[in-house]
Amino acid sequence: MKSPTSDLSPAAQAGPAAHLPPAMISDYAAGLLSPGLSLLVASHFTSCPCCRAKAARFEALGGALLAGADPVAPEPCCLEAALARIEAAERAEPCFDAQGWPLPRPLCRRLERPIRELDFTAIAPGLEASRLDGFPGETVTIRRAASGVPLVTPGARIGTMGLLLSGAAQVGGTVFGPGDCLAELADAPRATGSSACLCLMVEPAA
């Protein structure tokens, strides 16, 4: 079976080239991001040592500042969130679903089933989406696009962000590969290559 990443150049397969905005990494380290964006950030960390290192520096700075602060009772979900961030930072290798898609570990844990078992619905010609539950105030989807099809539909809200999971997408002369963040782009990224393009997309509330 052909690898989902076989259409990428060796440079594109080496690791993400499009990183997270520093402000987003800082907010993630501080626990300020929404659940959907937190999933996207943790998934990007799986394949990006550069952004993981930045997050570690932000967390170290935050720890130093908290050391001199008055103690505050933690929320019930704090321990679970902290453990998830630690695992995302330490477990850099991807996991694989039954179809051989190399998916980030945080996303594998969230899906709990292979991509082929998700319910995809057509949202545009050549573009399907499977919505993930449990993200109030956000629309979090796994999108699957045929070659030449935009990953973002017209009318997407400002702040919509994507993480390329497999395959390749192109904006102008720039080709994005697995692990690349798709945000603040002048044009909608289009799937490219002969295999399907898979993307995690997070759209904020209106």
What can be said about this structure in brief?
By secondary structure, the protein is an alpha+beta fold. It is 30% helix and 23% strand.
Describe this structure in words.
With 206 residues, the protein is of the alpha+beta class. The chain folds into two domains: 22-96, Arc Repressor Mutant, subunit A (Orthogonal Bundle), CATH 1.10.10; 114-204, Jelly Rolls, CATH 2.60.120. The chain is built from six helices and eleven strands. The protein has helices at residues 10-13, 22-29, 35-45, 49-67, 78-90, 105-111; strands at 95-96, 102-103, 121-124, 127-131, 138-145, 161-166, 168-171, 174-176, 181-182, 190-192, 197-204. Strands 3-4-5-11-6-9 form a six-stranded antiparallel beta sheet, with helices on one face. Strand 1 and strand 2 (102-103) form a beta hairpin. Helix 2 (22-29) crosses helix 4 (49-67). The longest helix has 19 residues, at 49-67. The chain starts with 9 loop residues before the first helix and ends with a strand. 34% of the residues are buried. Mean pLDDT is 78; it is low at 1-14. It comes from Amaricoccus macauensis. InterPro entries: Anti_sigma_zinc_sf. This is Putative transcriptional regulator.
